[in-house]
Amino acid sequence: MLSRKIADSTVRRLAIYLRFLEEFEEHGEATLSSEALASRAGTTSAQVRKDLSFFGSFGKRGLGYDVSALASELRGILGLNRRYRVILVGAGRLAAALVQYAEFGARGFDIVAAVDKDPGRIGTRWGELVVGDVADLETIIRHHRIDIAILVTPADPAQALVDRLVASGVTAMLNFAPVQLHVPHGTDVKNVNLAVELETLSYAIRHRGAPAQR
Amino acid sequence: MLSRKIADSTVRRLAIYLRFLEEFEEHGEATLSSEALASRAGTTSAQVRKDLSFFGSFGKRGLGYDVSALASELRGILGLNRRYRVILVGAGRLAAALVQYAEFGARGFDIVAAVDKDPGRIGTRWGELVVGDVADLETIIRHHRIDIAILVTPADPAQALVDRLVASGVTAMLNFAPVQLHVPHGTDVKNVNLAVELETLSYAIRHRGAPAQR
Predict the structure, then answer these.
(1) pTM higher than 0.95, yes or no?
(2) Hey, are the CB atoms on A212 and B8 less than 8 Å from each other?
(3) What whole-number distance in Å separates Cα of residue A53 and Cα of residue B97?
(4) Using CA atoms, how far apart are residues B7 and B10, in angstroms rounded to an integer?
(5) Quick check: ipTM above 0.85?
(6) CB-side exposure of B66: number of CA atoms within 13 Å?
(7) What confidence tens digit (pLDDT) does each residue in B12-57 have?
(8) Considering only alpha carbons, which residue of chain B is nearest residue A185?
(9) How far lies B20's CA from each of A114, A156, B13, B17, B79, in Å?
(10) Fewer CB within 10 Å, N- or C-terminus of chain B?
(11) CB B99 within 8 A of CB B126
(12) Do both A22 and A88 map to the same domain?
């Protein structure tokens, strides 16, 4: 596909634009300028136009964007016109927080399973979900037809777990473990490193200049 | 300062490079090529050289980078040669997970306070920390000489809390609330939106092509 080489940062901005478009839609706004969208998303209208131009021609000169049409296009581009079945690999405190994170469900991501190796956690009930034994990972993935895995383990066991996920056919992973994972071609891993996010702030404090909001 | 306009994505990569340099340092490696660093960080050697070129001239042609010297430079650039005092605004499940996140302390970020408005949470002990009343936010910030706030509240109260943080002199914030915050010039806000991270995966699944790892 044409859009295969789009940078993660562009995809993230599209997801942010979609949030604001849906907000404008709720408020009954029919059209929106790239300036208004840019200002809400903390970027420039040139960036908005450039981001959208990868995917086609949206909006009309002088008339702005059709809010509902662009929101619908972005949902399609982001693959949000279907639901995804998600497993939490690791059932510690961060996993317990994520399972309660209402926005996941609202955006189409259903956490349907969780596993851990700690006998003290296995069998714990989280709402409708019961924490399973990581020894049964392959069976659980097959049973729940998992699309996406969220890895919330320490660094050490992460790669071995990822190898098992890959072997079980899971091709998309969100990794919170502080380690660079190796996966074959055709598997996507996105890393969330919360300490790195804090380091963008220590950098900003150190180089105090213009405020940065992304 | 010259480096004021560096993109967040560059700063994030510098933080990732630093992690690998420290790992190589632990293994007793004295020098490292930009190719090796790029391969570990999932980027290209051209990108590594470009990222570093913003800050000066590192490495020697054919000899690579001096691991310890470059790590030390990056710590300085990222503002990591000091410690930071952090407050959690909101003491729900995600906050409880963050307070246990060992990497924060290891990178110089000490969570020294937490506040909530829920009487059921106020007074709860988390290790050495006791959850305070958000009504006392200003006093707690002054008492603990807070450098950075991590906002882990629902969307609704977030802006009012940020206004109070700004008025109390907090100039750096990591925001988990799903809302775009408005802050004055000179205050930095970085947004972490975990649903957006999942949407980079649904995008990847929708546009299955080359694997992406950042």
Answers:
(1) no
(2) yes
(3) 40
(4) 5
(5) yes
(6) 7
(7) 999 999 999 998 899 999 999 989 889 888 789 999 999 988 887 7
(8) B211
(9) 30, 15, 11, 5, 18
(10) N
(11) yes
(12) no
The Cα A24–Cα A30 span in angstroms is: 8
Structure tokens at A62: 């002088």
Q: Are B213 and A183 within 8 A, CB to CB?
A: yes
Cα–Cα dist B48/B39, whole Å = 10
Q: Which two tokens stand for residue B5?
A: 């306009």
Is B30:B18 a contact under the CB 8 Å cutoff? no
Q: Quick: pLDDT tens for A64-112.
A: 899 999 999 999 999 999 999 999 999 998 999 999 888 899 999 999 9
CB B114 within 8 A of CB B99: yes
Contacts of A16 in chain B (CB under 8 A): 193, 196
Same domain, residue pair B187 and B121: yes
pLDDT over 60 (residue A37): yes
Interface of A with B in 87-106 (CB under 8 A): 92-94, 96-98, 100-101, 103-104, 106
Return the CATH number at B124.
3.40.50.720
State whether residue B207 sits within 8 Å of chain A by CB. Answer: yes
Strand duo B31-32 + B65-66: pairing: antiparallel
Give the total residue count for chain B.
Answer: 214
Between CA B41 and CA A191 the distance in angstroms is 11
Residue B189, pLDDT above cutoff 50:
yes
Whether B103 and B172 map to the same domain: the answer is: yes
Residue type, B149: A
